[in-house]
């Protein structure tokens, strides 16, 4: 048993993708206890409970229904609300059992164990196992799933944070991609980290320059190279400045501002340049 729990711990810590982490936790829990079905429910930002991963007969129907449970609603809701394990070996005799989901899916629930997943007194959700195949849920089952829940808490929290950071990054990328002006970013080592579509259009450069050093990537634009070099060296941003650049045989006037990109501790991580082609305005 210790070996199985160790292997589970290794598996769930091997990835930062939340759905994959939850799949591993639920698959191993169902297999270890020997159940017909199960789910992992997580508390969402609105304080409702989401069926994030579901396994077993009729699970596809439940996924399609996108059911959300109120806190303290049903057996699993009680486990999340109280932070305590709830074991019910005959749900038909328990007033906390909600028949709605069985009615919607056509599944028959007979017994349930719901174990909260807790990290630093914060309940993230619960592991719910349904219908043990060989009799009733035992104290040993409770001990095993509680250990898995304890091991899973850190992995789930890390995966959720990773997911949130990834979504935030995607959101920021969407903003940069849809900006009407050009945007270029260079990190503190001089590597180009972002060229949005408008910047590529104004300067007639490929977005594939991302990853190159700015001194080679922008070699055709000595003014831009000198600008980044100055801001990176002196750590002094510029506001509402102009420069003239040559693209092919055309001369353009660029209105620009630069901004230091800093982390939460105030350390400079790079420089961003926002700019517009103002040639026509200046005529």
What does this structure look like?
With about 280 residues, the protein is of the alpha+beta class. It has two domains: about 1-170, Beta-Lactamase (2-Layer Sandwich), CATH 3.30.450; about 180-280, Beta-Lactamase. The chain contains ten helices and eleven strands. The strands form two sheets. The protein has a six-stranded antiparallel beta sheet with strand order 3-2-1-6-5-4, with helices on both faces. A five-stranded antiparallel beta sheet has the order 8-7-11-10-9. The chain is elongated, with a radius of gyration of 28 Å. The termini are far apart. The model has no long low-confidence stretch (mean pLDDT about 90).
Question: What does the radius of gyration come to?
Answer: 28 Å
Distance between the termini: 79 Å
Q: Tell me the total number of β-strands.
A: 11
Helical percentage: 40-55%
- The succession of helices and strands, N to C, reads HHEEHEHEHEEHEEHHHEEEH
Q: What structural class should be given to the helix and strand makeup? A: alpha+beta
Uncertain regions: pLDDT < 50 for 5+ in a row?
none
For the largest sheet, list the strands in their spatial order. Answer: 3-2-1-6-5-4
**Mean pLDDT level:** 89
What portion of residues belong to β-strands?
25-35%
Biggest sheet character: 6 strands, antiparallel
Task: Report the CATH superfamily of the largest domain.
Answer: GAF domain
Question: What is the name of the CATH topology of the largest domain?
Answer: Beta-Lactamase
Number of domains: 2
CATH C-level name of the largest domain = Alpha Beta
Shape: elongated
- Number of helical segments? 10
CATH architecture of the largest domain: 2-Layer Sandwich
């Amino acid at each position: 048993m210790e070996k199985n729990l160790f292997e589970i711990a290794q598996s769930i810590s091997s990835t930062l993708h939340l759905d994959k982490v939850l799949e591993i936790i639920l698959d191993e829990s169902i297999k270890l206890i020997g159940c017909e079905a199960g789910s992992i429910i997580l508390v969402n930002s609105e304080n409702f409970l989401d069926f994030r991963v579901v396994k077993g007969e009729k699970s596809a129907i439940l996924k399609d229904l996108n059911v959300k449970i109120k806190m303290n609603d049903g057996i699993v809701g009680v486990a999340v609300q109280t932070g305590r394990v709830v074991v019910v070996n005959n749900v038909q005799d328990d007033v906390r059992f909600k028949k709605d989901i069985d009615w919607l899916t056509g599944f028959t629930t007979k017994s349930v164990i719901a174990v909260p997943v807790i990290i630093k007194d914060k309940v993230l959700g619960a592991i719910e196992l349904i219908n043990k195949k060989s009799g009733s849920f035992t104290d040993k089952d409770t001990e095993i799933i509680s250990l898995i829940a304890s091991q899973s808490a850190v992995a789930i929290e890390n995966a959720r944070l990773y997911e949130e950071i990834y979504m935030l990054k995607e959101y920021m990328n969407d903003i940069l991609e849809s900006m009407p002006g050009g945007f270029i970013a260079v990190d503190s080592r001089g590597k180009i980290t972002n060229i949005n579509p408008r910047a590529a259009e104004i300067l007639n450069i490929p977005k594939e320059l991302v990853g190159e050093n700015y001194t080679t990537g922008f070699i055709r634009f000595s003014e831009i190279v000198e600008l980044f070099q100055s801001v990176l060296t002196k750590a002094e941003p510029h506001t509402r400045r102009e420069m003239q650049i040559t693209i092919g045989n055309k001369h353009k006037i660029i209105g620009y501002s630069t901004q230091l990109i800093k982390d939460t501790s105030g350390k400079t991580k790079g420089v961003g340049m926002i700019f517009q082609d103002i040639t026509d305005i200046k005529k």
